[in-house]
Amino acid sequence: MIYPYRPERESSQGRSRRRHRLSIAPLDLIRETWADLNQNRLRSFLTMLGIAWGVASLIILVAVGEGMRQAHMEKMYAMGRHIIIVWGGSTSIAGPGIRPNKQIYLTVDDYEILQREAFHLQRLSPELSRYDLISATDINQGNFDVSGVLVDYMAMRSIFPAQGRQFIEKDITDAARVCIIGHEVNRQLFAGRAAPGDPVRLQGYTYRLVGILPPKTQNGSYSGRDDGKIFVPYPAMRRDFPFRSGPYGDRHISNLILQPKGMAEGDVAELQVREILARHHHFDPLDEDALPIWNTATDAKFITQIFSSMKLFLGFVAVVTLLLGGIGVMNIMLVSVRERTREIGLRKALGATRLNILAMFFLEALLISLGSGLLGYLGAMGLCGVINSLPLPDVFAGMIVSKWVGLSAFGFLVFVALAAAFYPSYTAAFLDPVEALRFEE
Predict the structure, then answer these.
(1) Cβ–Cβ under 8 Å, residues 293 and 274
(2) Which of 18, 129, 302, 318 would give a disulfide with 58, using CB separation of 3.0 to 4.6 Å?
(3) What is the DSSP annotation of 254-295?
(4) What integer best gives the mean pLDDT of the chain?
C-alpha cells in the first residue's frame, strides 16, 4: 500500500526557534528606527521637537510658578510667619451698655488675658513703639522706630540677627538695657561696622548692642521696615519710655503680635481673640472697627491658593503641548506603517507574528518619544541652571524644579508615548499579509 507523503509537522520547539530568528534584536530595532528617521529628517525633527518642547515647557512653566510663589512667600514671612496684629480702635456698633465711638485702648492686661484663655495661639507678645532720636556718638544720630517686645516676638517676626543673638528670658526678667538694630540703623549710626557690645544712646539711656539684623526685603509692614528699627526688651521699654498720657499710663501698649498654632487655625484664632477682648472691653465681637486686625495667616492662605491655581494653569498648558506632541508621534507612526505596509506583509509571510510586528512599531514609537523627551528634560534643566546663575529680581526666587515635577513630567511622557504608540502598532500588527503584499502607494 502506498501511503501519501505527508511532511512532518514542525515541532513547537522548531516554530519557536524560527520565530525567534524572525524577531528583531534591540540593536537592529535602533538601526531601523534611525534609518527611518533619517529618511524623513524634517518630519521626524518637527515631531520630536513637539515632544521635547512639551516636556521642557512642563518643567519650565511649573518652575517659573514655583519661583514666583517662593519669592512672594519669603518676603511675606520676612514680616512674620502666620501672625495676627491687633490694634485698639473705636466702637461703631451700639448695644446694651455699649456706646458708639468708645475708644478701645490695648493694655498689658489684654496680653495676659489672651495668654491664659486663647488656646488657639502658640506665641504672643505685646509691642510698645516709640519714634525717638537715637545716637551712637554725638555726630552719628538719627530718628528711628524703637519697639519693646518679648522673646516670642523674635520667632513670630523673623528677627534673626546676622551677628550676635536674640533676646533671652533673662533680658526680659532683668529689664536689661540691651537692643537689636536693623541693617539701616547699623549703616547710619555705625557705618555698617556695628558689633555686639557697642553702646547705643536712646534718649539719655545707654543700651548695649546684642544683635545686628541682616538686610530684610519685606513686601509689607505695619509700623515700618525692620531695617530701620531698634528692638529692646518690653520691660525696659515700659520703664524707660512709657506712655505718659491716656487712662492706662504705663500699662498702655501699641499693639499685640499673635501667632496661631497653624495656618489652618488663623481664622479660628482671630475669632477667639475678638470674643475674648470684646468681653474684656465690653464691645460687640462683630464690631471690626473696635478691634482692627491684620491676619497674615489668612493672607498667606489666599496667596497660596492664587499661586497653586497659577501653577495648575501653567501645568495644564504644558500638558496640552505635550499631548499635541504625542499626536504628532502617532501621525508619524501611522505614516511609517503605511510606507512599510509591503514590508509588514513580507515579514508576516515569512512567519513574523502579530506580537513581533506590534513590538517593532511599539518600541519605535517609544524610542522616538522617550528620546525626544529626554532631550527636552535636559534642555529645560540646562535653561533653569543658566537662569538661576544670573542676577534675579526680588520678585523671583529662580527656576525651582522640585523632584515631583521631574517625576510627573517623566511619568506623563511615558503615558503619552504609550498612548501614541498603541494605535499605529495595533494597525500594523493586524494587517492582512496578502493584502499588505498587494498594497501599492
Answers:
(1) yes
(2) 318
(3) SEEEEEESSGGGHHHHHHHHHHHHHHHHTS-TT-TTTS-EEE
(4) 80
* Phi and psi angles of residue 425, each rounded to the nearest 5 degrees, phi first: -65, -40
For 338-367, the DSSP string reads: HHTHHHHHHHHHTT--HHHHHHHHHHHHHH
The pLDDT value recorded for residue 8 is 46
Q: Give the Cα-Cα-Cα angle 28, 30, 33 (nearest 5 degrees).
A: 110
pLDDT in tens, 45-86: 777 777 788 788 888 888 888 888 888 777 777 788 789 999
The strand pairing partners of 111, in sequence order, are none
CA distance 266 to 20: 68
Question: Three cell numbers at 84?
Answer: 495676627
- Arithmetic mean of pLDDT, 381-399: 84
- Give the distance, in angstroms, between the CA of residue 90 and the centroid of all CA atoms in the same chain: 39
Q: Closest Cα partner for 85 from 209, 179, 223? A: 223
Of 16-25, 88-97, 167-176, the range with the highest mean pLDDT is 167-176
CB 196 within 8 A of CB 166: no
Domain locations in the chain as residue ranges: 22-74+303-438, 84-296
Q: Which helix (H) or strand (E) holds 201?
A: strand 199-202
d(CA 410, CA 416): 10
- If 0-12 CB within 10 Å is exposed, 13-18 middle and 19+ buried, where does residue 201 land? middle
Is the Cα torsion angle 152, 155, 157, 163 positive or negative in sign? positive
More confident residue, 186 or 346: 186
Instruction: Give the SS3 label for residue 419.
Output: helix
Instruction: Map grid coordinates 530684610 to a residue.
Output: 216
> How confident is the model over 390-409, as a mean pLDDT?
78
Region for 206 from its dihedrals, namely left if φ exceeds 0, alpha if ψ lies in -120 to 50, beta otherwise: beta
List the beta strands (DSSP E) in 51-174. 84-86, 121-135, 141-149, 163-164
pLDDT in tens, 7-30: 444 444 444 444 444 455 667 666
**CA 274 – CA 61 distance, rounded (Å):** 42
Q: For residues 361-371, give the mean pLDDT.
A: 75
Yes or no: say if 256 and 126 are a contact pair by the CB < 8 Å rule. Answer: yes
**How confident is the model at residue 4, as a pLDDT?**
45
Question: Given a cut of 80, is residue 157 above it in pLDDT?
Answer: yes
CA distance 84 to 82: 7
Q: How confident is the model at residue 256 (pLDDT cuts 50, 70, 90)?
A: very high
